[in-house]
Specification:
The structure holds two protein chains of two kinds. By secondary structure, chain A is an alpha/beta fold. Chain A has two domains: about 220 residues, P-loop containing nucleotide triphosphate hydrolases (Rossmann fold, 3-Layer(aba) Sandwich); about 240 residues, P-loop containing nucleotide triphosphate hydrolases (Rossmann fold, 3-Layer(aba) Sandwich). Chain A is built from 16 helices and 25 strands. In chain A, the strands form five sheets. A nine-stranded mixed beta sheet of chain A has the order 5-4-7-8-3-9-10-11-12, with helices on both faces. A nine-stranded mixed beta sheet of chain A has the order 17-16-18-19-15-20-21-22-23. By secondary structure, chain B is of the alpha+beta class. Chain B has a single domain, classed as Glutaredoxin, CATH 3.40.30.10. Helices cover about 40% and strands about 25% of the residues of chain B. Chain B has a four-stranded mixed beta sheet. In chain B, α2 links the parallel β1 and β2. Classes of the chains: A alpha/beta, B alpha+beta. At the A-B interface, β6 and α5 of A face α2, α3, β4 and α4 of B. β6 of chain A pairs parallel with β4 of chain B, so a sheet runs across the interface.
């Protein structure tokens, strides 16, 4: 019998960072038992990231940690991270955390002869041993270089330190200030070669974005892109840009659009659950209204919905929708609907995306409306926007969230195809509905049509719709001689039709009367002929009688 | 005048703490070098405490010790910290203001 052998899959041992998103990029965390270098410029979040690594290690994975600070005193650190919801004092009291501030002041220290850094080793070793720490942070060890003169000793000692840390089997995080030509000012990356992460803080067009990149990670796969990250009241969260595969589950459920007429335009009677819908159109074509309709419809079915309004405040949106008979307040009150308003320029794209992600995690909605997505486009460059939308749509797909985006187009008069602004979105969305102005003689009508609907047959007509006090109403298709009619043309066509109808009616009755007259004439003629015939017959019979009489007479004469 | 000042500093009692680590070469040198200096310039007028941070690990943190060996002069003020094996006697003496 052949024994079945399963090839052993080696899993590189990792220490999960507990930092939202970072574990996904690093495929599980930092290399366990090895040093990791985090470098970046001032204020890019090195200390925070390393602190979060320690604290999450303690709270989530029960791994005690040592934080050796070369820059900030322990009290300052405690205070700094307190605002992010980390209570260092408690962890210290629980013997899970040791914070040691190493102060090396150049002005206070003189050097005379050979030395080594045994003091540091012993302090660190003592701290590690006393709480059985498995995680260690050295923040920022390069400070030593400014405090001590003998570079040769320092370099040799650092090499020894990292070697020693490895031997100790602790997962260490070393932070380093970014240098001009090298990753760190003192070239720490030469010593720490297992995993190097670079943090970056950039301001482009007044919008700041923090980014993270894994420069190298020995013995493991990792994402190689730059990943934006966010520091907020919960610490750091990193945003993995793209999921590598397109293998999310799909649903064949249909959700109604909430707009009766629009449902009919789709063969299946609505959108697929978990699909993305783009509603594009020029200004004032009722995109928001369509979005709100969909939102209320979903809320009605107890589907949790988040409405991101980038143009209106929640109050304004609620009021405006009320004017056409859409009651959003009801659902806000019962908690199925959330409206989030912010100016798109408030944050960088990534921050918006992260906010979205956070809200999705917290609220777990099944429906999301972003009104309008084109406002986000104004924040970044084409490329950035596209990549962000890909990420957004990925994220929504993975969570099986039905998403409706509205997109504002520039005014277009000559073509039905919307402008290039949403070229970037169009290939990503599953369903694309366009609402557009149809300008005629002195008036403007709204038309709606479906450009595409993946996996579903749909109407090819441009349907006119109107907004009344009771909401949206899709009008019946009116086929004129030149195609589909709208607005006044529809009206005049109707009028013309009525007039011609009346005319026809008149004509018919006139013809009827004529026939009647003709019949009467005919009947009269028939009567006359009959009479003639009768008189001829009479004459004939008279003649016959006369002849009979003559015959009789002649026979008598014989 | 200058002589008087140096006389004054020389006569004040010196208090030193020397931090060493076990039997390391540098530590041994430091102890030797310090003894030699003290015997020459501060005969019987000094207190020297030698702390082996390998045994007394807490002390390393308390005194902010990073490098070994570290010599701290507590008295007379100002407090001075010298790291290294003290092989550069001239520099050490200058720092301790034992010579001009």
């Amino acid at each position: 019998m052949q024994k079945e052998t399963i090839p052993p899959t080696f899993i590189f041992p990792k220490a999960p960072t507990g930092v939202d998103g970072l574990d996904e990029i690093t495929d599980g965390g930092f290399p366990k038992g090895r040093p990791t270098l985090i470098c970046g410029g001032a204020g890019c979040g090195k200390t925070l990231l390393s602190m979060q690594f320690l604290i999450k290690g303690i709270t989530d994975y029960n791994e005690p940690g040592v934080f050796m600070s070369f820059e900030e005193p322990s009290d300052d650190l405690t205070l700094n991270v307190k605002s992010l919801g980390f209570d260092l004092e408690k962890l210290k009291a629980d013997k899970m955390l040791i914070v040691d501030h190493v102060r090396v002041e150049r002005s206070e220290i003189e050097e005379a002869g050979e030395y080594d850094l045994d003091g540091l080793f012993i302090r660190l070793g003592h701290a590690i041993d006393s709480i059985k720490a498995t995680r260690v942070v050295l923040d920022t060890i390069e400070t030593l270089f400014s405090g001590l003169d003998n570079q040769a000793i320092l370099r040799a000692e650092l090499r020894r330190l990292f070697h020693w840390l490895k031997q100790k089997g602790v997962t260490a995080v070393i932070t380093g200030e970014r240098g001009e030509a090298t990753l760190t000012r003192q070239g720490l990356e030469e010593y720490v070669s297992d995993c190097v992460i670079v943090l970056d803080h950039r301001v482009i067009e007044q919008v700041s974005t923090r980014r993270l990149r894994i420069v190298k990670y020995r013995g493991s796969t990792h994402g190689t892109n730059e990943y934006p990250f966010l520091i907020d009241e919960n610490g750091i969260s990193v945003l993995p840009i793209t999921s590598l595969k397109l293998d999310n589950e799909v649903s064949s459920d249909i959700v109604s659009t909430g707009f009766a007429g629009l449902d009919e335009m789709f063969n299946m009677g609505g959108f697929y659950r978990g699909s993305n819908i783009l509603v594009s159109g020029t200004a004032g074509t009722a995109k928001t209204t369509i979005g709100s309709y969909f939102a209320t419809e979903q809320c009605k079915n107890n589907e949790k919905t988040i409405y991101f309004a980038f143009e209106e405040s929640p109050q304004q949106l609620v009021r405006n929708m009320k004017s056409i008979g859409v009651d959003l307040q009801k659902y806000l009150d019962n908690g199925t609907l959330q409206i989030h308003s912010s100016r798109p320029s408030l944050n960088g794209l990534e921050l918006h995306l992260l906010t979205l992600r956070k809200l999705i995690k917290e609220f777990e909605p099944t429906t999301i409306i972003i009104d309008p997505i084109s406002n986000l486009i104004s924040v970044g460059s084409d490329h950035e926007v596209r990549s962000m939308l890909v990420r957004l749509i990925d994220m929504l797909k993975v969570n099986n969230i039905t998403a409706l985006f509205t997109s504002l187009n520039k005014q277009h008069t000559d073509t039905l195809r919307p402008d290039l602004a949403e070229e970037s979105v169009s290939s990503l969305v599953d369903t694309w509905i366009t609402v557009r102005d149809m300008e005629g003689i002195g008036e403007r009508n709204r038309g709606i049509f479906i450009i595409k609907a993946r996996g579903m047959g749909h109407s090819n007509q441009v349907r006119e719709f109107i907004i009344t006090n009771n909401g949206l109403e899709l009008l019946d298709v009116e086929m004129g001689p030149q195609g589909i009619l709208t607005g006044a043309a529809r009206q005049s066509f109707k009028n013309k039709k009525t007039i011609s109808d009346i005319k026809l009616q008149n004509e018919i009755s006139r013809k009827d009367r004529e026939i009647e007259r003709k019949r009467k004439v005919l009947e009269a003629n028939i009567e006359a002929l009959k009479n003639e015939f009768e008189s001829a017959e009479e004459e004939l019979s008279i003649l016959k009688a006369t002849e009979e009489l003559q015959k009789e007479m002649s026979s008598k004469k014989k | 005048m200058m002589n008087e000042l140096s006389e004054d500093t020389n006569t004040a009692r010196h208090k030193f703490t020397l931090f060493v680590s076990g039997m390391s070469v540098n530590s041994g040198h430091a102890i030797e070098n310090l003894r030699r200096i003290c015997d020459q310039y501060l005969k019987d007028n000094y207190d020297l405490e030698i702390i082996d941070i390998n045994r007394d690990k807490e002390q390393a943190g308390i005194h902010q010790i990073v490098a070994i060996p570290t010599l701290i002069k507590h008295e007379p003020l100002p407090k001075r910290t010298i790291i290294g094996d003290l092989s550069d006697s001239e520099k050490v003496l200058k720092i301790l203001t034992l010579i001009e």
